[in-house]
Amino acid sequence: MERARTCxxxxxxxxxAGLFLAALLARxxxxxxxxxxxAAAPAHSRAIGLHxxxxxxxxxxGLEAAVLAEGVRIGGxxxxxxxxxxxxxxxxRAWPEHPFVLALPQQRTEALLEQGLSRLAPGALRRGxxxxxxxxxxxxxxxxxxGPGGARALWRARVLVGADxxxxxxxxxxxxxxxxxxxPDAYLMGDVADGTADxxxxxxxxxxxxxxxxxxxxxxxxxxxxxxxxxxxxxxxAVLAALVRxxxxxxxxxxxxTMVSAFAPRRRMARRLVAGRRVLVGDAAHEISPIGGQGxxxxxxxxxxxxxxxxxxxxxxxxxxxxxxxGFAGYERDRLxxxxxxxxxxxxxxxxxxxxxxxxxxxxxxxxxxxxxxxARGALAGACSMRWAREPDPGAGAGAGTPLDTVLTASTRx
Length: 414
Hints:
28% strand, Alpha-Beta Plaits, FAD/NAD(P)-binding domain, 414 residues, 11 helices
């Protein structure tokens, strides 16, 4: 094994949260390295929702215009059941400056983040590397990593950030427990050519056999998500098309499918986000049901709040437990609170989409109709577009509630 390499912040995981955090740090002079176990960039769409607070966060990196140019603006949604419209929702009043949720496949989002990081810190992203172990010393974390072809390397970082997903090795090696829950639900999801008349609109079909959701994507594609009961079905576009047609009457072309997957939603919350010189963000900190589509933005908001704290701690030479450094305990408290709140909304979305017949189905329809009437409609639009995340969480350190760029710039001048 070669001599240990050094950096200020080592980020384990080069997904959306890890890349976003690394770019924020690099923009303000932090020596950051990202170790990503995948040897190549992802090829599938996966997460697609960029909510207004995500767009504001991307503005700090100069990437807002790029994602807006590529994505589809979803200005609202419509709920239907058994061939009838239950009501409509608009994001216009919830976010006047961004009256939409942007739909963009995750591989494009990650590619733009990777390009942004490469401009700020060439070579910072190292693919094919993953964290095997980590141990703490005074003011540093020593990380043992494995790379391509059996290569091994030691890194000495002043801070280690776990952005390595729901089964985070950083979280496990730090001895941070997580509370997990599996929902009794399964879904089939796929992207196919959009043959609907619902351009620019999200559609939720609350059908007796289970929910069918659809969202427009760039280049004439539409994402479909179908509740399939308690067990995942085969990931087959023909099965997806048959379910959609049976429940909604919409005709899908299986041959146009670019992605299909089956999944069961889970919830997993880390008991802590800060341990010694280690910090968690994104799914490593909180995995929530993807029904509702807020998980990726939630991870970016972690990074948004964490970045100024790391910049300031590094500039001040803080070398002890980060929980004793101003702002980090607040980061943990507030980000876990936000994650639990988002998880509750995701659970409600999941529960509403389960199969329902007879009186239960009629009660559900009545509930949704009421939710899509004023004044409840405004609150629902705010929840769906993450209006609650408009400003950095209180307690996230000095400068909370201040635009991110101002906080970071002030921190580097200390």
